[in-house]
Amino acid sequence: MKSPIIFLLAVCFSLFFIPAKLKADDGYKLWLNYQKLDNPELVKGYVNQLQYLIFQAESPTLKLAKAELLKGYQALLDHSPLDTNHLMLGAVLIGTPKSLRMLNESILQTDLHSINSDGFVIKRLTIHNIPTTVIAANTDIGVLYGVFRFLSLLQTRRPIQDVYIVDSPAIKHRILNHWDNLDRSVERGYAGQSLWDWHKLPDYIDQRYIDYARANASIGINGTVLTNVNANALTLTPTYLKKAAALAAIFRPYGIKVYLTARFSAPIEIGGLKTADPHDKDVINWWKDKTAEIYKVIPDFGGFLVKANSEGQPGPQNYGRSHADGANVLAAALKPFGGIVMWRAFVYDDKVPDDRAKQAYSEFTPLDGLFEDNVILQVKNGPIDFQPREPFHPLFGAMPKTPLMMEFQLTQEYLGFATHLVYLGTLFQETLRSDTYSKGPHSWVRKVIDGSLDKHSLTAMAGVANIGTDRNWTGHPFGQSNWYAYGKLAWNPASDATEIAKDWIQMTFTNDRDFLQDVKMLMMHSREAVVNYMTPLGLHHLMGWDHHYGPGPWIKDKARVDWTSVYYHKADEKGIGFNRTSSGSNALGQYAPTVRQYYENLKTCPTTYLLWFHHLPWNYKVNEDTTLWDALCYQYEQGVQDVKNMQLIWRKQENKIDVERFEQVNNLLAIQYKEAKWWRDACLSYFQSKSGLKFPAGVIAPPQPLAYYENLTFHYVPGI
Amino acid sequence: MKSPIIFLLAVCFSLFFIPAKLKADDGYKLWLNYQKLDNPELVKGYVNQLQYLIFQAESPTLKLAKAELLKGYQALLDHSPLDTNHLMLGAVLIGTPKSLRMLNESILQTDLHSINSDGFVIKRLTIHNIPTTVIAANTDIGVLYGVFRFLSLLQTRRPIQDVYIVDSPAIKHRILNHWDNLDRSVERGYAGQSLWDWHKLPDYIDQRYIDYARANASIGINGTVLTNVNANALTLTPTYLKKAAALAAIFRPYGIKVYLTARFSAPIEIGGLKTADPHDKDVINWWKDKTAEIYKVIPDFGGFLVKANSEGQPGPQNYGRSHADGANVLAAALKPFGGIVMWRAFVYDDKVPDDRAKQAYSEFTPLDGLFEDNVILQVKNGPIDFQPREPFHPLFGAMPKTPLMMEFQLTQEYLGFATHLVYLGTLFQETLRSDTYSKGPHSWVRKVIDGSLDKHSLTAMAGVANIGTDRNWTGHPFGQSNWYAYGKLAWNPASDATEIAKDWIQMTFTNDRDFLQDVKMLMMHSREAVVNYMTPLGLHHLMGWDHHYGPGPWIKDKARVDWTSVYYHKADEKGIGFNRTSSGSNALGQYAPTVRQYYENLKTCPTTYLLWFHHLPWNYKVNEDTTLWDALCYQYEQGVQDVKNMQLIWRKQENKIDVERFEQVNNLLAIQYKEAKWWRDACLSYFQSKSGLKFPAGVIAPPQPLAYYENLTFHYVPGI
Q1: Predicted pLDDT at A109
Q2: Angle between helices B2-17 and A238-251 (to 10 degrees)
């Protein structure tokens, strides 16, 4: 009972002695935490350059942009620029060629032609001999994006005397997927309830809806799927459409479109039809009518996300039709209105395959070229299911005639829920920068996604949201960094995860140099830590049954073998790992030859994927000095030490930020340390029961017998 | 779709133009909204009197009191008093005779002897010729209560030059009951999830736990039952006890004890016994051991709350034993540690009685005198179930040998959830001031509760909490007033609901005189409004099936007749109402003769209870001019007009408070108006189908046929 008391005293203490800048901060403001800059020199420079504002804001979006700018100036610089219509020293010009005639100057036209409809230009230039700062775009939403970017320059104390940024998003649809149910529970959600209060909608407008839209706009997210992929047909009834329309109206000026999940059997469940066969005329008409009805209340409706014939969801295969048949019915209904279908490729059918990792590829590659042009396939980053580390999904690069979009998971279903500090920027980057070799070297996954590899104009990225009603949105204060990093990488998949982390820290916490240095290091290593203590050396799918909480390498004898752990690690007295080489399931055959050879050859296969692709004997030499068994033990031990180091690094930050968030992270790291040890002890205990080998020096035997870990039971685990 | 857009513009607008005092306020601070006083004269007077602080704060509770005082001074007066050890002009002395030797002066001793252990004295007096302000108590918690009261004097701008308050609570245990489940759902909760994050406890300490304790302490609440009366035996397992202990450690310095609900069958479910028979030795020992185990981790554990043999809960009657047998087993286990049993009298057994209103009295009065002296019976305010209006429960005054405690419901299960503005201070007051006549006139319910009528020293009051994770705690900003009023009335059941409303408005919103006047009126009438549009003239139990959302006067043919609406209103072509006189169920026979006669005689029975006690023909003359049918129609219509007036009054307050709360209440009143019309239309439509009579002038016929209202269906209604 020590920690609560210590925390209480800290809170108590804090009321007296902490300086103003360390006041309690509940994390609600996210990265838009416009803290007053404390460097007078810097402030003076900024203020001088930002004396006057030439910004005619007529549209709702431009009004929001202007309000944001003034709010940011006030908070960061304690300064309110004056409105003017004339060029003068210290003026900032903001707008589109339509909203502000001055922006038609030829010098800016060139820049504006080089950006797309969501892009913007931030530029210091001389107009009529007067040095002027310009934030310009072709559209109102581009201006809002530009304003947010400009404010982030001040938040991160960048020089703006000679600023020249020309930026456009590489991906058209940058979307959050909410696995939110109509009863406000969130599947795999660990940050409270769903933000959407369906019961009180459409009448009651929660302030959070507005703040959610603003946060998303600030990082360029422009779409949100409100409802769970495990869909409820009621979503498409008039009652709920009215509610969704109220949200769409709030999100609209922030440039955010609403999408809904379509349950494939909705024509039966709410339409009164006897079939949902995509070739049935009534079904086709039902989807047409339903779609028209939606556009009546949501004129800029984005489209449907569909999970079909996967994990019990109904789909076209129930009627002997293909995924393309199913997707195309919805696509035809949406097409007149400009909507799209995002069809999930996360499928595994009723028959257990020889290797689940192969199934999506096997099912979808034959359909390449058969989809309507407003269909995009939504593919998870890896072939299994959002594990701490997976190789890139073999579908990337394998369907050149079909637009593919990326699905990342921000909510930490398999990465410690909202209690483990895991920065996912590195995970996202790892996948996006993977080379598919589908058109030779440099056929990176990110080039599949941004459409450049196969010349697709329909491009998208989805992130499964980690957001809920928790005051700080994501439960863990560092969960916010994953929302932020996702937005940044959806805008530009070539972005650098380190730079993203750096900006996020500065915008969210402080510009203190030591804090920045330490915490950046902590974040950048955090994902390796979780891989080490959960699933090192390419292991995967070792988590607890159903709730996915904690370790469960012993899980076996379930309705499907590919829902068990033993199916994936295949550990026995001789060895461990899943042979996906040509002598095994040959899942490697789904990759381009260069990739296949790289992973198939034990000399080149990196240890990070060793047991993903190979089944090896316990005494296999990972390197000259170390057997596989010893390496496995060392990795688990390393994971625990990693978290201990994270704790040490964090504790050094006391007094550099507010007490509230400092203590939150302290509390959470203590849980993470406890659970890292649990993972290590449970997994090593289990694997030792197979290998029968001794623990190497430096690795202490688990304090409890294997049965203890196997028998731990948990009630009411969140997220299911 | 108008409202969201208007709201957006309002928010947008607010960024520019609103004065500082109208900044957004999310309501999190409750009545502890220490806003800077804007009257310089007043501030000067306060500050002069509060220059120095003689306050040696060693204990955790005194430390909290001191921190609170400094926080309040800073926020209200922008002033920090200096610490000193010597009497001087402008000094405030704070403490107990133990913490501060100066308080042993005889002049204060007299006051301190006149208060109990939770009481305090706030007094301006002259010590050694120096005018001095004193906040003194016999205990540390008394000091904390005194400090909160003192700050409330400043919040409400009361003069303090000659302050002299000597105050003690009239009730010993002032308790919140949380109907919170271990999965964080809240039965009949409409303000988000349970505050208790069981999954992350005991390691993660949410700031809200601390703020919850502080808010309760500020109004004298000193106990909290963490778990639902529909209890889960897991609550009493070591895993959950450790979690409850973490909460108890946080609440302890705030003077708040933790209680748990005990599932009567726990000895079987988690104890491995074959019976839960209270006469069984193993069962008796199991409860003894379990209780000792609890006190090991929660040394100041308050005791058990038990719902037994009611609505499917197990209890002693399953073994042919009485409620007293059941309660006494737990009482014996708790007694050595000073714990108490709160045994709920809300029972109705498997056999449907002739009148459910009679059942608790029938079951419990024969047991008077049979309970151990650390058992208290927890009785709901009325004999049915927290209806908008009920007469006081006949048990009050009918069990002189048994301590009885009051159970009020703050969460608005039957009063519009968290979307209707209903101030319950008037409802609570109405019950507490009801005269039972059990020992002649002035045998008020409040004297039963405070122990003075029958000389009981064990006294308690329970309020079923309306609190959840919603940012403003209660969903509706005015729900906070019910938490506040409950605390105030639990401290002093003779308090005046108007005064409580006035203080709450000033502390929560503003001291603006017009706002205070208008909003006080609105609050004071709000409960009559909800009675009018839901259950006028003594009607009751007309709500929707199961979820209790909206009207359902047509509910019939359920497993039990006393779960239907028709059982209670008994409307047919001839008349309406439940005959509880001697010619009917004779429930009135359970009251003292004076009370019985008053309600039985149609000449004296107030119209507010007419149909509660009488079945009358539609053409019965309520007064010279009005038939019962017409009166019923008028009351429903009046209820709708009442809400319209509330809207008008509220809209006048724009710019007097922050935009965020102003708009929230605006939104919610719009829902309330819509739902008031729905209640009126559905109920009148239904009752007309019985009476066959025309609507009187001024009452418009419902816009839809009865079948429309009967067929409305709702999914995922919160609170179940």
Answers
A1: 86
A2: 20
DSSP sequence for A623-651: ETTEEHHHHHHHHHHHHHHHHHHHHHHHH
Smallest CA–CA distance from A716 into chain B, residue = B183
3-class DSSP assignment, residue B326: helix
Residue A590 three-state SS: helix
Strands A575-576 and A616-617: antiparallel
Report the share of chain A in percent with pLDDT over 70: 97
Strand partners, B463: B176, B408
Are B64 and A12 a contacting pair at CB < 8 A? yes
pLDDT tens digits, residue range A61-106? 999 999 999 999 999 999 999 999 999 999 999 999 999 998 887 7
Best residue of A204, A241, A301, A417 to probe chain B, by most B CBs closer than 10 Å: A204
Distance CA A413, CA A548 (A): 7
A292-341 pLDDT, tens digit each: 999 999 999 999 999 999 988 999 999 999 999 999 999 999 999 999 99
Instruction: DSSP for A45-93, please give it.
Output: HHHHHTSEEE----SHHHHHHHHHHHHHHHHHHS--PEE-SS--TTEEE
Q: Could you report how far apart the first and last alpha carbons of chain A are, in Å?
A: 29
Distance CA B681, CA B672 (A): 14
**What ipTM does the predicted assembly reach?**
0.94
For chain B, the average pLDDT equals 95
Contact flag B198-A716 (C-beta cutoff 8 Å)? yes
- Return the SS3 of B605: coil
Task: Check residue A6 and give its pLDDT.
Answer: 42
The Cα B471–Cα A209 span in angstroms is 13
Q: Does B20 touch chain A (CB under 8 A)?
A: no
Nearest chain B residue to A7, by CA = B205
Helix (H) or strand (E) holding B26: none
Does residue B519 carry a pLDDT above 90? yes
Name the residue of chain A whose CA is nearest to B210's CA: A8
Is residue B19 within 8 angstroms of chain A, CB to CB?
no
Identify from A23, A180, A193, A251 which residue to disrupt to test chain B contact, counting B C-beta atoms within 10 A and taking the largest count. Answer: A193
Question: How large is the greatest C-alpha to C-alpha distance in chain B, in angstroms?
Answer: 82
Write down the pLDDT at residue A405. 98
Q: Which of A256, A260, A254 is nearest to A333 (CA)?
A: A260
**CB pair distance less than 8 Å for B716 and A182:** yes
Residues of A assigned a catalytic role: 311, 385, 413
> Which amino acid makes up residue A467?
I
**DSSP state, residue B563:** G
What is the b/e burial string over A246-259, where b = at least 16 CB atoms within 10 angstroms of the residue's CB? bbbbbbbbbbbbbb
Give the burial class of A74: count Cβ atoms within 10 A of its Cβ; 0-12 exposed, 13-18 middle, 19 or more buried: middle
Following DSSP, what letter does each residue of A444-508 receive, concatenated? BHHHHHTSTTTT-S--EEEEE----SSTTSSSSTTHHHHHHHHHHHHH-TT--HHHHHHHHHHHH
Q: Which residues are within 8 A (CB) of B444 and not within 5 positions of it... i.e. 6 or more apart?
A: B432, B433, B434, B435, B436, B453
Instruction: State how far the Cα of A614 lies from the Cα of A577, in Å rounded to an integer.
Output: 6
**Nearest Cα residue to B494 out of B167, B217, B218:** B167
A471 contact residues in B (CB cutoff 8 A) = 471
State yes or no: pLDDT of A12 exceeds 70.
Answer: no
